[in-house]
Amino acid sequence: MNPASPQGRGVLVVGSSSPIGQAIQTRFAGDTVVGVALDEPADLVADCSTAAGAAAAVQTVVDRAGSLDVVVLAAAVMPVAPITTTTDAQWQSAFDAILGTAFAVCRAVLPILSPGGAIVAVSSVNATLAAPGLPAYAAAKAGLEGLVRQLALDFGPRGVRVNAVAPGFIDDGSDPAKAAGYPLGRTGRPAEVADAVHFLAGAGFVTGVVLPVDGGLSIASPAAFLRDDLRERWL
Question: What is the model's pTM?
Fold first, then answer.
């Protein structure tokens, strides 16, 4: 860690061009943050699913901050198709963006992360809650959560923590039509995911967890919303 540095921590956000990625960068204001994506806006345009792209991203943070202390894995692709019509390219795109990027970046950063360093992955409720038409995305996110637990075990003795957040539907939280099944009565906002990521980056005795950021979706029985009698009782 580099707490005494005037730039704060060195933070790498992979997948920074998405609304969640941008919110995460904003949340780490006060640290030296490098956002990497395949397109603009990004501090560095690079494909972090490749060894070269991951190495370039890591080196950029080290050059700017003097250290690399926090890594956020927020890159994703979500093909929407049943498995019978999912193409090879769609399947591979999801795994490259989600798992391929996590593999390449973690392989590059773990040798240099010092005790106190943290990796936070952005997973999804779809890793455990099935939704129609997301076989590639759900499988890749489930694999990401498995990788988080494995790395937390392997690198915990070095004082490196690895965690994940699992967002539900994230937009501006204002459309009630999308909120069915969410006990809080609304969908989430990118800044709320960023708050959870920021917490896990600094939670010194938390590792190997997947923190739901889903407005209670993952605790709710579908019957509470599908059965008229139970829905009336709940409302």
Answer: 0.93
